[in-house]
Amino acid sequence: MRWPDFLHLALRALTAHRMRSFLTLLGIAVGIAAVILLTSIGEGLHQFVLKEFSQFGTNIVTVQPGRRSAKGGPPGLPSTARELTLDDAAALRRAPHVTGLTPSVSGNSEVRANGRTRRTFIVGAGPDMQRAFAMRIKVGSFLPHDDPENPRAFLVLGATLRQELFGSDNPLGERVQIGSERFRVIGVMERKGQFLGIDLDDAAYIPTARAMALYNRTGLMEINITYEEGVPAARVTDGIRKILVARHGREDFTLITQEDMLATLSNILGILTAAVGALGGISLLVGAVGIVTIMTIAVAERTNEIGLLVALGARRRTILGLFLGEAVALAAIGGFLGLALGAGIAQLVGLLVPALPVTTPWRFVFLAEAVAVVIGLAAGVLPARKAARLNAVEALRAE
């Protein structure tokens, strides 16, 4: 049988029962649309989270006190790990390839100024924090390079905190009280947004030593280190590890690279996106059942036609291919309809809910269409084999 005749017969069989064919391909279309919509939302969240992390740079190493291990023991016991100190931070400035360093301590406190009081996030940081985390000053300047042990009582306001305390007035030079200590405002940050649930705009930035005194801490919460672009993170961490081991006598600290964290996070989010897509793919089973049903009915209804084709010399494989072609055509057309429907709904969701990041991953688009064709092929095998095995004489006698 010539290919044009083959296609003509397959398409004619589909158009002969338009409503039945439409409902069958609609089952595939809904499944594909669900896959595209769910993976679009998953991929959008994937890219959003990675963007949130990468906006602070990828050449950062974080040093935290205490070594992560699998040792057991009841929770809540005090740690015997040696604390990280300002002297440790000063020593790490001499590590190879290090370009900046900011020791960090943070907490929540009431801030009072201009007759107003607000509880907010207090960040004890070094002067390199602005450059390390790609933050910008809008007015004034960031924390200067002072004596690390006894810095001046300076403070930099986040954009939201400035608005809450001073409104549209110029806060530079004003006094702000945190706890029992008064700080002088020397700068206001540009808006940065939220990071891991922390509003960086609703925060106050003070010198690390002042924050340690404010929260009665003898050690740092962490040390964030930036290093030269293009240098492998492993080389930088080796240098940091040698210095701290020499100072502490053992490795009682944890090194976390932004590079490794982003890679791990990307893998987790990628698996989550694939799992969400697979969950939507379950609905494709409904479409597969629909194809099996309609093709089985078609074989029963077209028994005479099959017998006539066999009597005219059509080969068994031709009959098999004809019914498989109809099943694949149903699935493929339903798949294209589902792709258009899913992508359209995803874009509509993105327009109606701007806060929800939606990105359609094209690799899933092609994969979904391929899956639809495979489902059509698999669903059509049994009915097609049944049709190809019909006896010509018995088929012609059927009514």
Unreliable residue runs: 70-78
- The SS-based structural class is alpha+beta
Shape: elongated
- What pattern of helices and strands is seen along the backbone? HHEHEEHEEHEEEEEHEHEHHHHHH
Mean pLDDT: 79
The biggest sheet amounts to: 6 strands, mixed, barrel
Which strand order spans the largest sheet, edge to edge or round the barrel? Answer: 2-3-10-5-7-6
What secondary-structure arrangement, pairings included, does this model have?
Layout: H1 3-16, H2 18-54, E1 60-65, H3 86-92, E2 98-113, E3 116-125, H4 129-132, E4 137-140, E5 154-157, H5 159-166, E6 175-178, E7 181-189, E8 194-195, E9 198-199, E10 203-207, H6 208-214, E11 222-227, H7 233-248, E12 253-257, H8 258-281, H9 284-301, H10 303-311, H11 316-352, H12 362-388, H13 392-397
Parallel strand pairs: 3-10, 5-7
Antiparallel strand pairs: 1-11, 1-12, 2-3, 2-6, 2-11, 4-7, 5-10, 6-7, 8-9
Helix pairs in contact: 1-11, 2-8, 2-9, 2-11, 2-12, 9-11, 9-12, 11-12
Notes on the structure:
By secondary structure, the chain is of the alpha+beta class. It is built from 13 helices and 12 strands. It has a 6-stranded mixed β-barrel. Strand 6 (175-178) and strand 7 form a beta hairpin. Helix 2 (18-54) packs antiparallel against helix 8 (258-281), helix 9 (284-301) packs antiparallel against helix 11 (316-352) and helix 11 runs antiparallel to helix 12 (362-388). The two termini are 26 Å apart. Residues 70-78 have low confidence and may be disordered.
